[in-house]
Each structure stands twice: as structure tokens, then as C-alpha cells.
């Protein structure tokens, strides 16, 4: 029990893994931006693709 308590008390001071969290946040923001872009332009691209396909 004492080991668990010591581990929990040292957790806020532990700086290992900070870079991983930063990279995960950056990747998350990139994914959100990609989804937003695809959502915004997806219907226009689909309409253009359908138009080209129908012309053949």
C-alpha cells in the first residue's frame, strides 16, 4: 500500500512521456483538420467525380 501511495505522490512530478502526449495532441489536431477538410470539400469532389463519370 505504501508503494502505491508513493507512486501516486510522485506522478505529478514525473516528466517522462510529456513528448509523447505533445505528439499525440499534434496528430489529433492534424486528424481533426483532415476530417474537417474532407467533410467541407467531399460533396463538391463527389459531385465533380459524378459529373466526369456521367460524361463518359
Protein described:
With 56 residues, this protein is mainly α. The protein contains 2 helices and no strands. The mean pLDDT is 85.
Measured on Cα atoms, how large is the radius of gyration?
Answer: 23 Å
Order of helices and strands: HH
Basic shape? rod-shaped
How many helices in DSSP terms? 2
Sheet with the most strands, sense and barrel status: none
Query: Helicity, in percent?
Result: over 70%
List the helices and strands and how they pair.
Layout: H1 2-10, H2 18-55
Descriptive labels:
56 residues, mainly alpha, 0% strand
Quick overview of this protein structure:
With 56 residues, this protein is an all-alpha fold. The chain has two helices and no strands.
Amino acid at each position: 500500500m505504501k508503494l502505491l501511495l508513493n507512486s501516486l505522490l510522485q506522478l505529478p512530478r514525473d516528466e517522462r512521456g510529456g513528448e509523447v502526449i505533445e505528439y499525440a495532441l499534434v496528430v489529433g489536431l492534424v486528424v481533426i483538420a483532415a476530417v474537417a477538410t474532407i467533410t467541407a470539400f467531399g460533396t463538391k469532389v463527389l459531385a465533380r467525380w459524378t459529373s466526369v463519370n456521367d460524361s463518359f
